[in-house]
Design goal:
It contains seven helices and no strands. It has 222 residues and is mainly α. The chain folds into two domains: 108 residues, Four Helix Bundle (Hemerythrin (Met), subunit A), CATH 1.20.120; 108 residues, Four Helix Bundle (Hemerythrin (Met), subunit A) (Up-down Bundle). α1 runs antiparallel to α2 and α4 packs antiparallel against α7. The protein starts with a helix and ends with a helix.
């Protein structure tokens, strides 16, 4: 779960770096040869680094984003190496626009993808809880409760983070829901031989509602 938070933070850092290089390229486009070489070299190194990161097996970016970034990195490399300091103002503008567009879209794309993942995680937990209840399987129920609790602890951690850009009202609601789920989990766990079906159903419904809300928000953003 913490790795997913790291993905967003890393995307935000990369977006800021891309934006800074876009500014440098824009300024250099009307400067002298030394300024142009410096800006182009720095931007090329950035995209080579991005390409190297994309090839890393530990990279958690969605496959479609990785594929698009890889294609762009190759384009930036070809344009820079083929023209170099002889680039026209239009060529510089192309590089600037690429950096700015990726900077603007990278974080949002990652967050949208993570929202989808969390929606599916909530849905899966709801299904696992429901299945364990219907099958009257104590072992499966313990695992389902544990996984659901871990998911909500993560959600609470994310909502409580100072770096979270969620609206204050959303943060408050998610924290309250996480505490509510924790309370209901304890109620169910107190007596596994006679499960509190009402509390369990409430937890399942909570997951389903939040999962639906996340997917609806993501579709609206798209």
């Amino acid at each position: 779960m913490i790795k997913k938070m790291d993905v967003v933070e890393n995307a935000e850092k990369e977006a800021a770096v891309l934006l800074n290089h876009a500014v440098s390229l824009s300024q250099a486009s009307t400067g002298n040869s030394v300024d142009k070489i410096k800006a182009l070299d720095s931007n090329l190194k950035l995209w080579v680094e991005i390409e190297t990161t994309l090839k890393n097996a530990k990279n958690l970016l969605p496959e479609d984003i990785k594929s698009n970034l890889f294609k762009l990195s190759k384009y930036v490399e070809r344009l820079t190496l083929s023209k170099g300091v002889n680039m026209s103002k239009s060529d510089f503008d192309t590089l600037v626009n690429i950096n700015m567009q990726i900077s603007e879209g990278l974080v949002e794309s990652v967050k949208n993808n993570l929202a989808r993942e969390e929606a599916f995680s909530l849905l899966k937990c709801a299904i696992d809880l429901s299945s364990a209840k219907e099958n009257n399987n104590s072992s499966d129920l313990v695992n389902a409760l544990d996984n659901n609790m871990k998911l909500w602890v993560y959600i609470k951690t994310l909502a409580s983070s100072e770096k979270s850009k969620l609206p204050p009202e959303t943060k408050t609601n998610l924290i309250k829901l996480a505490d509510f789920v924790s309370k209901k989990t304890m109620e169910v766990g107190k007596n596994m031989d006679n499960v509190n079906a009402k509390a369990l159903d409430t937890m399942i419904m909570t997951n389903l509602q939040i999962s639906e809300g996340l997917m609806t928000s993501r579709q609206s953003a798209e």
